[in-house]
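re: ur question from yesterday

yeah so i grabbed the chain u mentioned. its 420 aa long if i counted rite. heres the sequnce exactly as i have it in my notes:
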Amino acid sequence: MQTDFYPFFVDNSPFLLDIVSGKIIYNYEGIDLISYFNERMLPEEKKVKPKVKSFSLSVAQKCNLGCTYCYAEQGNFGSKPDNMKLQAALQSVDQLFSDAVNGEHYTLAFMGGEPLFNREVLYKATKYAFNKAKEKEISLGFTITTNATLIRLEDLHFFHRYQFTVTVSIDGVGEVHDQLRPYISGKSSFNKVKEKVLSLVNYPNRNYKVFARATVTTKNTEVLKTLQELQKLGFHSIQFSPMLNSPNGKEQLSEEEIDNLLIEFKKCGDYFEESFQNKKLIPFQNVLSILSQIHNYKKQSYPCGAGGSYMSVSASGELYACHRFVNDENGYMGDIQNGIDASKQEDWLISKHSDNQVDCQSCWARNLCAGSCHHEVMYRGRPACNYIRGWIDYCLKLYVRLYQQDATALEYLLGNNMQS
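ran it thru and got these structure tokens back, copy pasting raw so excuse formatting
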């Protein structure tokens, strides 16, 4: 049983949340709550370098869509379009498993551009990794992020055979999607995306999950409406990511729009709570992720695994901190022939740790936020801090309410969160 408390704020006044009983405890104004909070989080081993257990392969640095805000600059990352060669893909698998130990879990992701432009290499690398994982007696999960337009029936069989998590990039329904994610020619892509999504979710007895990832830009800020529309399409999970930094500055949210985004997220949270009361689950991953962090009560010092447990491989075989840093010297981590550059990784992990982020050191939410996306901070700064704090604050209060309504259901839900 957990027997500690979370500090949080109501109308700018500090309180404590008993995470076992779900009760709000008052009259703690005289305590330094930030110190109280930080001292009582479950400790982490900061001195132990994380083991890399996840690679994303940029198997196709090219794309058939012309997304206006694309961090990959229409898939080629500011270079010429390219496909990863099979040898590079197989060497990437070898590098990922180079010091694998029996019983460990690994993840192999396929990204682009649009990874289905290089279907042959994707298929062969998956089969190779699957067989090698069996030999080493380790578990392995496969994921793919796709715009869905190129999906064929054979791909559905393939996803089913290897139990993929299929994440579809989709920014809304109809014109909302089309104005952000048209074909390079300018032609509408939504009808094709919808057709392919329905084929994914309606595959008989499917053995794979179908997630949606929506980027929130200046043109699709009605998040609740988008959530409800994507829910109707049958996605297992729906995740929203605010556009804070794009290569050309297009569609990225202003600070005022970021503040308004918090209002929209709270509407989604209220919708989630109402459905929870009616014994229904809304697959709103943004709220589920934070509720899981609160429930599991574990300190975070990095916002994600980038440069630590996770790295990305470019089409040419170079290693980068994550898929957003492909072809960016600031995130370079080595290559698949020579392995990870230990000194670069160490420098990265030290500099990116939340304890070493000046803006984070006095923030009450730092152990749940852990400093925000490295790429966005590096190239945009921290315009979203108030939004992030506001969202965490909302979720803490929501956790209390849900716990009081049905603690058993909440514990089951968060213990079985689809992306935990």
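noticed a couple things. The radius of gyration is 21 Å. also The first strand starts at residue 5 and ends at 10.
anyway ttyl
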